[in-house]
Structures are given as structure tokens and as C-alpha cells.
Amino acid sequence: MIRVGIIGLGYWGPNLVRCFSDLENCKVTAVCDQSRDQLLRIKNRFPGVYPVESFDELLDRDLVDAVVIATPTATHFDLAMKALEHDLHVFVEKPLAKTSAQCRKLVEKAGERNRVLFVGHVFLHSSPVKKLKDMIDSDELGRINYISSRRLNLGPVRKDVSALYDLAPHDISMMLHLLGQKPYSVSCSGFDRLNPGIHDVCNLTMMFEGNRMGMVHVSWLDPRKERVLTVVGEKRMAVYDDLEQEKIKIFDKGIDKPASTTGDFAEFQLSYRYGGSYSPYIKEQEPLKAECSEFIRCIVDGDIPLTDGINGLNVVEVLEAADISLRSGGQPVEISQLLEAEQSNRHGVVR
What we know:
Structural class: alpha/beta
Distance between the termini: 52 Å
Number of helices: 10
CATH superfamily of the largest domain: Dihydrodipicolinate Reductase, domain 2
């Protein structure tokens, strides 16, 4: 039986307590938060948990085998590092850390201690994304040209991170997973209307090898809630709408180029394909509960998670490059520049 401690009982923490409490092969033995009122609420709902206000107190007591960190992004690195140094398995809500350098240190420490480092990219554990991945891998959609997404709503507005860091990790993680690679270049634009320096609206563009592109639009200033991801392949196109009952729709639509060109004008005419659409069967399950179950399974079986530390690092590299681009007027930033800059700083090289 894996003993689990939940750190942070704000917006998402109580959902994590619920999901882990429903699993048979683990037990939530402790919860940690600076709010006594929130600790009392959780204690009343889950009488078997031990409430503590201090993370250090939780670490000093033999209460848990693994911790789940659902605190503000700026705290992720320090809390996760402390937990790993105490030989605990660690689940960190997205993003893994603020910088790619911090992520690399966590990955290294988890390897040294032989502990599971798991990142909360919850959509990679959802049935619709698994279905899309299967369809892409089986070539049902054909070669993927681009993926675009919209993640919009009116609030909740964050004061510690921008909409880029708060909302975009979901879509970035899905795109990297579906395409099976990291982008080589990132550009981002946006504006900060409510709090200077904290962008409320962001438009992110990722360029991938093979002339493929990913586009992400996030905002907490939009009148309508949207959670839509579109995958455009050469054979078919797919739309994943997380707010619809039928999550995925496949469209047999596209534009076909002529097979050969001999100079005849007619052969240069593009052929537009307007086929039908259908919704594939998907066996639904709650993504968060599936994610929590996978974390425990990886601890028990000693497996490497799909959303491991490297997966978290890849997403943070994109976020970090996008943030640099955002603050430099949308100029493209190559992912490779991040590691080069980090290595230069380590050796005291000034560029």
C-alpha cells in the first residue's frame, strides 16, 4: 500500500485527494497546506488523513512514500527537490518547474535516488488523446501538417504566472506527444492587460521538423469557454472538443495535389475533398483518476511514466523559449539556445 501526501489544497488539490482516495493500492495519509480552514475541510471529508501546515514537518515524520505537489509554479522546484532528497516518489502538477535548468536538476536527482518523477500532464492520460495518438500512429489521418488549439475562458485570472504558463502546458504537452517530437523553434506574442508583466492572452507558434507546425491560443479574457484541438492530416482531419459529449469528430476533408505535372494547366488544379464526418467510439474514463492510478502503478511496477521528468522538461523548454520570445516582441527562439545559454552561465561565459 503506497502512502500518499497531497501538498497544496487550493483549486486542484482537493480533486487529487478525492482521486487518490478512490484507488485501491494507495492511501492518502497526509495533506499539507498553509490554510488551517482548508485543512479542516479536507479532514472533515477524509477523516483518515493527517493534516500539517509545514512541508518540513511532513518530511520529518514517517507519513508518506510519495508526495503530490499542487502548489504555485514558483514553489515546484524546491518542494520536489526536498521530497526527492528524502527518497520520496514525486508527482508534480504542470508545469514541472519554472525553468528548464530546474527541470534537469529534478530529473538528475530522481535518477540518482531511483524515484519516480511524474508530471501532471493530465490530458496525455485521457481517452480522446489516446485515441488521436492511435489514429496518427496507424496513419489513419495521414501525414500531419499542423495542430492548432484554443484554450479560452473568462478567468480564473492568476497573479503568479501568465496565461502561457497556466494554460498552454496542456496543449503543448498534447502536441509534442501527438507529433512525437519537440519543436526546434518557438515564437510567442501576447499582452498584459490586468497585471503588468503577467500576460492574459498569448499566441504561441511552434515549428517542427518536417515542415509541421503547432499553434496555441490561450486567454482568460474570453467571453466563451473553449477547449478545442484540431489535427490536420493529409488524409483526414480531427477535432477534439473537450466540452462536447462526442469528444472527437473525424472529417474526411482535404486538398489533394495533382499526381504529376507535365505543364498542362489542368494538372495544376488542386482537388478539394468534401467527405463526410463521424465520431469514433471512445471508452471514457476520468483523466485525473487515470493519471493518479498511473503514478501509483509506476511506483509499484518500477516503470517509467509517459509523463516523466523528461516529458516535463520538454514542455518547460517550450514555455521558457516562448516566454523569452514574448518579452522580446515575438522574435523566434530556438530551443537549442536554452541549453547553450545554461551551459555558458555555468562556465561564467558572457555573451
